[in-house]
Design brief:
This protein is α/β, with parallel strands linked by helices. It is 32% helix and 31% strand.
């Protein structure tokens, strides 16, 4: 006979309000308890401005596991409207978008949101110098090395 565990989560206030306790109960009535610490860490918001869905999927895979909440927009106008309502820790900005170029938008972002951290990504390495001059904190040419990208994200939005 195979024993299948049943996992029940109940909130049990402790002396110090220590959070959740998980009880694993098997059909043979064996009990194990494990204290889980409540998640108090709030995910940092990252705005991704890119019109390619594939890059969004890649960024989602690498950044969500590192406790970042990603929001996506596909145009500069949408990014501007988003930034009027939200305050992300970091913006990942593509250069070539349907309504303009990210390198031009950088000047606007630096003037309006001087403390905002911005990573510029582009399929054209020739945009690097202009992007950095216009205020990007970092620049990556697509495709970019994920370990270096992760290090940069962690440095800019710790």
């Amino acid at each position: 006979m195979q024993v299948r565990p049943i996992i029940c989560y109940n909130f049990i206030p402790g002396n110090r309000g220590d959070g959740l306790k998980a009880a694993v109960i098997t059909s043979q009535m064996n009990f194990m308890t494990k204290t889980l610490k409540p998640k108090t860490e709030v995910a940092k918001k990252v705005l991704v401005v890119d019109d390619e869905g594939q890059i969004g999927l890649v960024l989602d895979m690498i950044l969500t596991e590192k406790k970042y909440q990603l929001d996506y927009v596909s145009s500069l106008l949408s990014a501007d409207e988003y930034l009027k309502k939200q305050q992300p820790s970091l913006v990942i900005l593509d250069n070539k978008l349907p309504d303009g170029y990210g390198v031009d938008f950088l000047l606007y972002l630096r003037k309006k949101y001087p403390s905002l951290k911005i990573i510029m990504i582009s399929g054209f390495g020739s945009a690097k110098d202009v992007a950095l001059e216009n205020g990007a904190d970092a620049f990556f040419e697509k495709p970019f090395p994920l370990d270096e990208f992760n290090d940069t994200v962690n440095r800019l939005a710790p």
